[in-house]
Design brief:
The protein contains five helices and twelve strands. It is α+β, with helices and mostly antiparallel strands. It is globular and about 45 Å long.
């Protein structure tokens, strides 16, 4: 029912997010787009096999969407706390072709379906009512592209390829059980840890690098 769509570095500012990825991967990730309907913006990098990395932040020049933003970006104090604690690769987005089925009985985890962009919907995204990350980021955000594949033509390909993806969490078995229940493909390998911590192993032209 689910498969990995993209990884998310959730940053206090785009400049900080790009600098962090540069430090980890020795790659300068190009600008992606502004989300006028969410008041956010991003930089994007292909990771192979129709997956990619998103560096996302609140857009200081954007307008309020009139609803909570995605990825917990309204709570800038929490975004900063996570950032300073080294939780920078903060989550992932899972793609589904049946978001209504996935959400049925699970809205307390994933939130409600929101059609986006607001004025001309092209995809559906699940967002908790307060805009927070699902299960504090331990569960993926959900996207349904309404049967259309995400075009990779507008995402830079700098030779980076995802080779591994993992999550440490105090309630590892609960998370792993949810992912199994949903038949999640290319999901992170979940292991017990003292706190939520994502790590990705990304092969670059300069060798294998870690992103966290």
């Amino acid at each position: 029912m689910l498969t990995l769509d993209h990884l998310t570095v959730i940053a206090p500012t785009l400049a900080e997010g790009v600098a962090h990825v540069r430090d980890c991967l020795d790659l300068d990730v190009p600008f992606g787009q502004r989300h006028g309907y969410m008041g956010t913006h991003n930089h994007l990098l292909q990771l192979g096999d129709m997956t990619y990395l998103e560096i996302v932040a609140l857009d200081p020049d954007g307008t309020s969407p009139g609803r909570p933003r995605w990825f917990g970006l309204d709570d800038q104090k929490q975004v900063r706390r996570d950032w300073e604690a080294g939780r920078r690769l903060r989550g992932w987005v899972a793609r589904t072709d049946g978001i209504d089925d996935v959400l049925s009985g699970r809205e307390a985890i994933f939130g409600r379906k929101v059609a986006l962009p607001t004025d001309a919907p092209a995809f559906d995204f699940a967002i908790p009512d307060d805009g927070s990350l699902p299960w504090g980021g331990a569960a993926p955000s959900l996207i349904d592209r309404r049967g259309k594949a995400r075009s990779m033509a507008t995402i830079a390909d700098l030779g980076a390829r995802l080779r591994g993806f993992s999550l440490e969490h105090p309630e590892a078995e609960v998370i792993a059980s949810l992912l199994r229940e949903l038949g999640a493909e290319r999901a992170p390998v979940v292991a017990h840890g003292r706190e939520l911590r994502y790590r990705a192993q990304i092969e670059t032209l300069a060798g294998l690098r870690d992103l966290s």
